[in-house]
Each structure stands twice: as structure tokens, then as C-alpha cells.
TrEMBL record:
Name of the protein in its database record: 4-hydroxy-tetrahydrodipicolinate synthase
Lineage per the UniProt record: Bacteria, Pseudomonadati, Bacteroidota, Chitinophagia, Chitinophagales
Subunit record text: Homotetramer; dimer of dimers.
Keyword Amino-acid biosynthesis belongs to the record: yes
Enzyme Commission number(s) of this protein: 4.3.3.7
Length: 292
């Protein structure tokens, strides 16, 4: 799991004006983040607008990402749902030979108990041919996975090897870091908190912002992991306003606005996601113009 330390990037899914997948733009994003120095990519995460993709499109994106990455960096694949049986079936049938691991979001909408979360992940881990990265993002799922549940999974389920923590609760994060097994990785899911979280012992970041600011985000994480806090702090504050703009209205609307300003993708979405407001787009354009 050493390959999952550092900076991962949750790839966007670019669309054309007719809302079909823009394969040329996706290749440009992949090349952009790898040339920027990220350590691995995450295909089919929330930032990829997976709820609006068909099963066939998800499979096509996975295969395309493996092909275009071409082993330059590891690829993590997002496979998660509120239906445990469906997740198990997809894990048993998806072509995951080239995947380094599977990122599996906690079940959303149904708001299971902590025991329900444990049993869900236990079943998912048993079905997966690849190591499982837990993903706690209560702002999207409606249910926080506690430090106690995370630690129970880390200690009792062998195929669960890491956690993407996006609760924003620093105390909870530190509880996990303090008591986790030695070889269990904890990575940040919050761009704006990654620097202080790495300082407390996290192993890296799965980033949204690195879709566009790949080099600076990767350099920030690399410096923080090396305990070069002066350099990491400098980059953190250089990027801070971009984080605020990027998440002000919606993810991935914010990061796609930046990518569109940079000429990498078109600013197109599938409903219910829509572009950021004209006012925010203007502020993003101004920030992007002045960013050095």
C-alpha cells in the first residue's frame, strides 16, 4: 500500500455539449495530472459524477483510464453504493486486474447504523479481488462512520487496508490515526485540511483540486509528508482561496469551472449538477488569471 501514499486525484468526467463523454478531454486531464506529479489516480469517484453514469459508461471509463494511464501511476477504482448486493456483484464482475485498490464509499441515503456499516464493508471486502479503501464522507452520505467503526474494520477485516476520511472532524481523524494498525493508511479527503491532517499523521490526500492544480497540490502533500512544514504551509496558503472557490457551490461544478477556464475541458454537466453561478465563474476566472 506504499503506492497509495501521497497525492491521489479523483478524476472528473468531462462531457461534450450533447452530454456524451468527452474521451479526448478525459485523456487530457489524465495526462495533465500525471505530468503534474500526482502519485495515483482515482477513477469513478464522486467527482466523476458517477451517479449520472450508466453501468456501461462506468465500465468504459474504467477501461479507458487503465489504457491511457498505461501503468505510469497506480489506478484506484471507485465502486460503492447503498445496495450491498449490487456492490458485491460489481466487485465480482468488473475487470479489476489493473486496479491497485477499490475505493468504496459508505452507503448513502439509507443511513445505516454503525453495525450496518461494519457488515456492509465486511461483505464488500470478502467479495473484492483487490484491497478496499473505506470512504467516509458524511456530508454526502448522511451518516458518519465513527472512529470506532473504522478501527474495528481496520483490525478485523484483512482486505480493508486504508481509509479516505472526509468527515472534516479533526478529533475523529486523530482518534483513527492514534489507534490504527501500523500498516493501515489514512488519507485525507479534504483539500483544505490536507496539510494539517498530514501533520497529525495522515498518509496523503485524495484530491479534487489536483485535477487542475496538480503540481502545487502534489508538491504540498510531498512537502508535508517530508515534514517540510514551511514549504507545505506556503503552498497550502497559495491554494487556499482556490479551495474556497472550488467548493463554494458544488463539487464537481467548481473544479470543472477551473478546468474549463484552463481550456482542458468544456464546462458541461448532467443534471442535477449545473455550472456554477455567473458571479462565481467570474471570480474563478479572475483568480485563475492571477494565479502564478
Amino acid at each position: 500500500m506504499e503506492q497509495l501514499k501521497g497525492t491521489g486525484v479523483a478524476l472528473v468526467t468531462p462531457f461534450k455539449k450533447d452530454e456524451s463523454i468527452d474521451w479526448n478531454a478525459l485523456e487530457k486531464v489524465i495526462d495533465h495530472v500525471i505530468s503534474g506529479g500526482v502519485d495515483y489516480v482515482v477513477s469513478l469517484g464522486t467527482t466523476g459524477e458517477t451517479p449520472t453514469l450508466s453501468s456501461e459508461e462506468k465500465l468504459d471509463i474504467m477501461k479507458f483510464t487503465f489504457e491511457k494511464v498505461n501503468k505510469r501511476v497506480p489506478v484506484v477504482v471507485g465502486i460503492g453504493d447503498y445496495n450491498t448486493r449490487d456492490v458485491v456483484k460489481r466487485l465480482e464482475t468488473c475487470p479489476l486486474d489493473e486496479a491497485a485498490a477499490v475505493l468504496s464509499v459508505a452507503p448513502y441515503y439509507s443511513k445505516p447504523s454503525q453495525e450496518g456499516l461494519f457488515q456492509h464493508y465486511k461483505a464488500v471486502a470478502a467479495a473484492s479481488p483487490k484491497p478496499i479503501i473505506l470512504y467516509n464522507v458524511p456530508g454526502r452520505t448522511g451518516r458518519n462512520m465513527t472512529a470506532q467503526t473504522t478501527l474495528r474494520l481496520a483490525k478485523e477485516v484483512a482486505n480493508i487496508v486504508a481509509m479516505k476520511e472526509a468527515s472534516g472532524d479533526m478529533v475523529q481523524c486523530m482518534q483513527i490515526i492514534k489507534d490504527k494498525p501500523k500498516d493501515f493508511l489514512v488519507v485525507s479527503g479534504d483539500d483544505a485540511l490536507a496539510f494539517p491532517q498530514i501533520a497529525t499523521g495522515m498518509d496523503g490526500l485524495i484530491s479534487v483540486a489536483a485535477n487542475y492544480f496538480a503540481k502545487d497540490v502534489a508538491d504540498m502533500v510531498r512537502a508535508a509528508l517530508a515534514s517540510n512544514n514551511a514549504k507545505a504551509r506556503e503552498l497550502h496558503y497559495k491554494l487556499q482561496d482556490s479551495f474556497d472557490l472550488m467548493f463554494e457551490e458544488n463539487n464537481p461544478a467548481g473544479v470543472k469551472a477551473f478546468l474549463a477556464e484552463g481550456g482542458i475541458i468544456e464546462n458541461v454537466f448532467r443534471l442535477p449538477v449545473v455550472p456554477v453561478s455567473a458571479g462565481l465563474q467570474s471570480r474563478i476566472a479572475t483568480f485563475n488569471k492571477n494565479y502564478k
